[in-house]
Amino acid sequence: MFRCRPASSTESALLADWAQAMAWETEQKRLDPAAVEAGVRGIFENPTRGAYFIAERDGQPVGTLMLTYEWSDWRNGDWWWIQSVYVPPEHRRQGVFRALYRHVWELAKAMPGVCGLRLYVERHNEGAQRTYESLGMVDAGYRMYEAALPRGR
């Protein structure tokens, strides 16, 4: 039903649009379009930062996720963080994320240095939490804290 594949740099504008839509829908945050576009290009310019994957149906993009990498000294391996998940409203509840997740899960299992998949989710996004749990993911018991630095330093 879905074909999952690495995204191409030629799809940067679509990925940036989807990232902005996701930020608005999930957190009511308006992002700086130029910053998002540069951030998406930054993955393609430096693949050690991460990778984008796209799900297609009938040759048309219907969803995406981005992976980033975090070294774990405890496990002597990399966690792959799932981020920037977006499925346009007309394609939701049809298994798009499930297909993307299974795709990256299989890639991770084939890589000896990967110790697992992680993601974060808004506390009130119960629908997403149920989806992640249905895929076998569990609440890791952490809360996330951050200290953002001002831009343009």
UniProtKB/TrEMBL annotation:
**Gene3D superfamilies named among the record's database cross-references:** 3.40.630.30
* PROSITE patterns, sorted: GNAT
Pfam families recorded for this chain? Answer: Acetyltransf_1
Domain N-acetyltransferase residue range list: 2-153
Record keywords: Acyltransferase, Transferase
- Report the InterPro entries cross-referenced here: Acyl_CoA_acyltransferase, Bact_Acetyltransf, GNAT_dom
Residues forming coiled coils:
none
State one molecular function term (GO).
Answer: acyltransferase activity, transferring groups other than amino-acyl groups
Q: Which PANTHER family match?
A: AMINOALKYLPHOSPHONATE N-ACETYLTRANSFERASE-RELATED-RELATED
This chain belongs to the protein called GNAT family N-acetyltransferase
User: What species is this protein from?
Assistant: Arenimonas fontis
